[in-house]
């Protein structure tokens, strides 16, 4: 067991189990047929569970899955069977909260679809190639919205020394101008 | 694709209808060809790219939506769309740039690398941009698309990025390093970054720390000492990222697993213990789990971990409860007593809304349960069983069975539990596992027999699965007649004859026959019952009834008869019987056909079940990967073994017509290296008084033709072992193997010999194309070609034959010829190695599945059986144990046989 990894991030419709978005990293789930089969049993196991406020958890096909429900969608983070369940939960919560923050609303399928680009980016800022990229929902949200891309890094992403450094840089810049 | 696109596709027809009440989602009815076309047109138009970035964003999102729904872009489509997307770098819109990055990453893998190269320049530019987010993203995209040579060119930028003051840029570069470190082409480059990586571990940014530590470890993974230093250095408390702490815990535990005795193991253990007080649950749990899994941990060593896990059991978070109960369940296998203190909390979890947690709690309780608490526990579980799915029930049933074997005095309670759930609703797998469990209990706990049989009787009254009914009827027939009131079973069995389909009726008829032949009082009544089955619609049922009746009538009238057909199990497996009969057919022994007259056929060795002793093997989600093959011994699929093929050739040769039946044939043994000019393998065919050595010779030189190929064998020590006939090969062409046979008569009471073997032949030059000799009159040059020595040993005269009931055979053979010895086997370190090797050089076969070794066992008994040439049974009971000092395996073995000479001979096989 080496670096914690994520096998996949999935968002399903909680009414019929159809896929809203899915991003798989594990080799065993590269194949489209295997994915759909996996999602089908995943939905079978988790439908109707109340997982609104806390992540729920289930074992399935040699995979640990943690999940949380939105209004009419369910968010899943899947990991190796031996993965630290709490790490997976942290990742799931980061996604859930980042999306809630970005969309400023309840997580509803329609809202998510209308902002699908942001949903895709959130997953991309969360996990890269199966490795955890970020678990702080605020940082994820800022990056998804490209905050600071036109100017400076948002202050809340800086440590104090960096903030001072950045202030110094700006001061120097203004002198040069 | 319709299923894939169910989201888009399903709504397609309804688009109009939805139009009226709400604006449809932009992805309703998205069409691949249309989006590709639109995207191509838009992205290639500089005006659109410049002025309408949001339109471009939407188009990219649609393309990505199609991908995520399982669509693929292939060939020309992929190329066109990829080129179009590269045009988007002209826009300075940040949101659009971000989507462009994402798109390139998503399609890079399925796009031709030649095409991907065109974006490298734009990305390299962004990697040096002032904008942190561009730098970070560009690196992440680049590392997915570059090969080792381009990596060399941009390496310096990545090295800068590794220590970038912006944590996102640094983390992005590090994560790329981690991904490239598993790629053998790029690994070397990544290892050169150690200094930068080391600097980043000291960053205060959590994700930077985390990825840097992972990369540092990956770069040094080949160097154990360096890893030791890393672990030591950072366990002093400089890390503030909980994820990095988890990594450190994993590295520490790996070191401890590799070498528990290392000098710093105490410090490593203390580090784990300190992590139990970390502020973050993730780290606490990681450390607790690592401690519980330490290979040689004593119960008191893991107590601190158990304490924190116990606290987690009452957490409001399901994932935390699950994690804790899963780990405790694992601990309960090794140290049930250590987990007992959590029992109260576990009981609380039986009602958990999350059924995985509830099931884990129950199985843990079943493992740790004390004898006194079982009644209460079973009551609690019974209430719970009705609200869980079959796959959970199966796990519970297996745990109950294990507990029952542990506390045989409580068998009544547990048997009642099993029979109650047997009557509940459930699928075949669930019912099967209960029936198997009950049968297993009958076998292991004899006092449960009568009650258990009645439970099974009640079950077949209302059982929808034919194979289970038939199995139970068979068991009733086997065991029922020897119970105190055999008559009680007759009603149940006869009901099946009246009410069931042919498959079950046939089984019931046979069962009745068994009662009738063994229980005198019942013979008369059963004859009456069976008479009605003579009119049955089904052939099989009528045949069985006829056979049973003819025997029963003789029994009733006191005439001599053999009850074998009805009562005794087959002395061999069905598969062995079939093959044995086939060989017998070729060369029937004189006299009437009986089991004793059949040639011995070795059972095909079952594929040795790897004991996947995975302690965490509990899969609350699927019984399919459940607790392994506890559900009963599955018969290996019959594979035709070598005897069949060899016996065929050999028995058709007139030269060997008078040797009697073949006893067994050995596996082919190589007598040459695989690259030599002439390849020789040998198969030993054993007959009652003779041995035929079959040398398969292959000529691997294409311009040579061999003539008069024969084999000379000599036993230096015992010239009684001498060939009485050699059947040579006339001509041996290139690459066409042919056999030389050497026949010997076995000297009396000799079972061992070592032969020097020499190939003799004449060499002729030949045309490699036709394989014909250049000169047909050429006599050829004589040549000798010695090959390796050939051994003949006692094992060759023992056939691996399985017997059906070891215990009764052991007692039948009796103590008279028993030999008991003890050995120390220092050459083996594990039970598994020792057992496999001993079975192999004894030439016996493990019975009753005793060769599967329980996980973590430090002692194991194996029952072995075989047949010695001449037909004497060989039975061995072996007890293997790891010697208390470790480092060697002790073996105690008792061998019995019908033949007084055999046990000694067998003992000599152990080296």
Automatic annotation (TrEMBL), chain A:
InterPro entries: AP_mu_sigma_su, Coatomer_zeta, Longin-like_dom_sf. GO terms for biological process: intra-Golgi vesicle-mediated transport; intracellular protein transport; retrograde vesicle-mediated transport, Golgi to endoplasmic reticulum. Keywords: Cytoplasm, Cytoplasmic vesicle, ER-Golgi transport, Golgi apparatus, Membrane, Protein transport, Transport. GO terms for cellular component: COPI vesicle coat; Golgi membrane. Residues 9-147 form the AP complex mu/sigma subunit domain. The keyword Disulfide bond does not apply. It is found in: Cytoplasm; Golgi apparatus membrane; Cytoplasmic vesicle, COPI-coated vesicle membrane. It is a peripheral membrane protein. Its main location: cytoplasm. The coatomer is a cytosolic protein complex that binds to dilysine motifs and reversibly associates with Golgi non-clathrin-coated vesicles, which further mediate biosynthetic protein transport from the ER, via the Golgi up to the trans Golgi network. Coatomer complex is required for budding from Golgi membranes, and is essential for the retrograde Golgi-to-ER transport of dilysine-tagged proteins. The zeta subunit may be involved in regulating the coat assembly and, hence, the rate of biosynthetic protein transport due to its association-dissociation properties with the coatomer complex. Belongs to the adaptor complexes small subunit family. Oligomeric complex that consists of at least the alpha, beta, beta', gamma, delta, epsilon and zeta subunits. This is Coatomer subunit zeta.
Automatic annotation (TrEMBL), chain B:
The keyword rRNA-binding does not apply. It comes from the Eukaryota. Keywords: Cytoplasm, Cytoplasmic vesicle, ER-Golgi transport, Golgi apparatus, Membrane, Protein transport, Repeat, Transport. Its main location: cytoplasm. It is a peripheral membrane protein. GO terms for molecular function: structural molecule activity. One of its GO terms (cellular component) is Golgi membrane. Belongs to the COPG family. Oligomeric complex that consists of at least the alpha, beta, beta', gamma, delta, epsilon and zeta subunits. The coatomer is a cytosolic protein complex that binds to dilysine motifs and reversibly associates with Golgi non-clathrin-coated vesicles, which further mediate biosynthetic protein transport from the ER, via the Golgi up to the trans Golgi network. Coatomer complex is required for budding from Golgi membranes, and is essential for the retrograde Golgi-to-ER transport of dilysine-tagged proteins. This is Coatomer subunit gamma.
């Amino acid at each position: 067991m080496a670096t914690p990894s994520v096998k996949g991030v999935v968002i399903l419709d909680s009414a019929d189990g159809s896929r809203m978005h899915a991003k798989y990293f594990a080799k065993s789930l590269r194949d489209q047929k295997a994915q759909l089969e996996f999602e089908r049993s995943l939905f079978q196991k988790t439908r109707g569970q109340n997982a609104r406020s806390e992540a729920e958890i289930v074992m399935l096909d040699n995979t640990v899955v943690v999940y949380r429900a939105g209004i009419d969608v369910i968010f899943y983070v899947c990991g190796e069977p031996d993965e630290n369940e709490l790490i997976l939960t942290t990742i799931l919560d980061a996604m859930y909260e980042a999306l809630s923050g970005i969309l400023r609303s309840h997580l509803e399928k329609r809202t998510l679809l209308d902002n699908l680009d942001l949903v895709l980016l959130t997953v991309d800022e969360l996990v890269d190639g199966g490795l955890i990229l970020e678990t702080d929902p605020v940082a994820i949200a800022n990056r998804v919205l490209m905050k600071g891309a036109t100017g400076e890094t948002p202050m809340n992403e800086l440590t104090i020394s960096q903030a001072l450094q950045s202030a110094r840089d700006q001061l120097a810049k203004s002198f040069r101008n | 694709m319709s299923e894939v696109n169910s989201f888009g596709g399903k709504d397609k027809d309804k688009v109009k209808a939805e139009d009226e009440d709400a604006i449809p989602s932009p992805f309703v009815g998205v069409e691949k060809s249309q989006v590709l076309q639109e995207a191509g047109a838009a992205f290639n138009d500089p005006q659109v790219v410049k002025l309408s970035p949001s339109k471009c964003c939407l188009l990219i999102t649609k393309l990505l939506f199609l991908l995520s729904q399982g669509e693929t872009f292939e060939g020309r489509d992929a190329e066109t769309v990829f080129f179009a997307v590269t045009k988007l770098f002209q826009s300075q819109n940040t949101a659009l740039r971000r989507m462009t990055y994402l798109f390139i990453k998503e399609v890079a893998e399925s796009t031709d690398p030649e095409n991907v190269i065109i974006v490298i320049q734009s990305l390299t530019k962004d990697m040096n941009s002032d904008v942190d987010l561009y730098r970070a993203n560009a690196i992440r995209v680049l590392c997915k698309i570059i090969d080792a040579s381009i990596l060399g060119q941009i390496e310096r930028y990545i090295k800068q990025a590794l220590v970038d003051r912006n944590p996102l840029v640094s983390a992005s570069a590090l994560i790329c390093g981690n991904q490239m470190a598993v790629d053998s082409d790029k690994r070397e480059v990544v290892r050169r970054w150690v200094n930068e990586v080391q600097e980043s571990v000291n960053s205060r940014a959590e994700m930077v720390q985390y990825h840097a530590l992972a990369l540092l470890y990956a770069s040094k993974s080949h160097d154990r000492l360096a890893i030791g230093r890393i672990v030591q250095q950072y366990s002093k408390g400089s890390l503030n990222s909980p994820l990095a702490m988890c990594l450190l815990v994993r590295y520490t535990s790996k070191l401890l697993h590799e070498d528990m005795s290392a000098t710093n193991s105490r410090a490593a253990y203390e580090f784990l213990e300190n992590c139990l007080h970390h502020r973050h649950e993730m780290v606490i749990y990681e450390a607790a789990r690592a401690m519980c899994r330490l290979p040689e941990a004593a119960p008191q060593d893991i107590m601190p971990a158990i304490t924190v896990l116990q606290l987690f059991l009452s957490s409001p978070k399901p994932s935390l409860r699950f994690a804790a109960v899963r780990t405790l369940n694992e601990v309960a296998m090794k140290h049930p007593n250590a987990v007992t203190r959590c029992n109260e909390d576990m009981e609380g979890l039986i009602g958990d809304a999350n059924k995985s947690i509830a099931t884990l709690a129950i199985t843990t309780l079943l493992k740790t349960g004390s004898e006194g608490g079982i009644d209460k526990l079973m009551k609690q579980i019974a209430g719970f069983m009705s609200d869980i799915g079959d796959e959970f029930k199966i796990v519970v049933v297996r745990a109950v069975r294990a507990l029952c074997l542990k506390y045989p005095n409580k068998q009544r309670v547990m048997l009642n539990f099993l029979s109650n759930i047997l009557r509940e609703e459930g699928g075949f797998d669930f019912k099967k596992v209960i029936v198997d469990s009950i049968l297993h209990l009958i076998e292991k706990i004899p006092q449960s027999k009568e009650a258990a049989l009645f439970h099974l009787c009640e079950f077949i009254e209302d059982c929808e699965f034919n194979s289970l009914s038939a199995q139970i009827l068979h068991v009733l027939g086997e065991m029922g007649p020897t119970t105190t009131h055999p008559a009680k079973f007759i009603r149940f069995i006869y009901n099946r004859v009246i009410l069931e389909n042919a498959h079950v009726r046939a089984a019931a008829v046979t069962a009745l026959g068994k009662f009738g032949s063994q229980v005198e009082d019942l013979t008369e009544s059963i004859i009456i019952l069976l008479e009605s089955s003579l009119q049955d619609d089904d052939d099989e049922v009528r045949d069985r009834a006829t056979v049973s009746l003819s025997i029963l009538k003789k029994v009733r009238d006191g005439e001599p008869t053999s009850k074998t057909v009805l009562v005794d199990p087959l002395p061999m497996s069905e598969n062995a019987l079939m093959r044995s009969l086939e060989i017998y057919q070729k060369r029937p022994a004189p006299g009437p056909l009986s089991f004793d007259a059949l040639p011995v056929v070795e059972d095909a060795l079952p594929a040795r079940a790897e004991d996947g002793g995975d302690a965490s093997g509990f899969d609350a989600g699927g019984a399919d990967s459940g607790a392994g093959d506890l559900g009963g011994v599955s018969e290996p699929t019959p594979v035709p073994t070598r005897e069949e093929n060899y016996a065929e050739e050999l028995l058709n040769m007139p030269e060997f017509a008078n040797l009697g039946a073949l006893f067994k044939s050995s596996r082919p043994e190589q007598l040459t290296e695989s690259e030599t000019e002439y390849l020789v393998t040998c198969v030993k065919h054993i007959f009652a008084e003779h041995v035929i050595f079959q040398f398969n010779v292959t000529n691997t030189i294409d311009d040579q033709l061999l003539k008069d190929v024969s084999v000379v064998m000599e036993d230096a020590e015992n010239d009684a072992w001498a060939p009485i006939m050699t059947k040579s090969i006339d001509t041996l062409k290139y690459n066409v193997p042919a056999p030389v046979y050497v026949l010997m008569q076995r000297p009396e009471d000799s079972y061992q010999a070592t032969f020097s073997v020499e190939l003799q032949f004449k060499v002729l030059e030949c045309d490699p194309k036709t394989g014909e000799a250049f000169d047909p009159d050429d006599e050829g040059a004589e040549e000798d070609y010695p090959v390796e020595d050939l051994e003949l040993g006692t094992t060759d005269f023992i056939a691996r034959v399985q017997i059906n009931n070891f215990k009764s055979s052991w007692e039948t053979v009796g103590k008279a010829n028993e030999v008991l010895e003890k050995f120390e086997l220092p050459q083996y370190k594990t039970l598994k190695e020792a057992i496999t090797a001993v079975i192999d050089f004894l030439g016996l076969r493990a019975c009753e599945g005793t060769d599967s070794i329980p996980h973590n066992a430090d002692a194991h008994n194996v029952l072995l059986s075989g047949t010695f040439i001449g037909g004497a049974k060989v039975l061995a009971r072996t007890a293997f144990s790891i010697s208390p000092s470790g480092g060697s395996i002790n073996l105690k073995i008792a061998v019995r046989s019908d033949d007084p000479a055999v046990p000694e001979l067998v003992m000599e096989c152990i080296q």
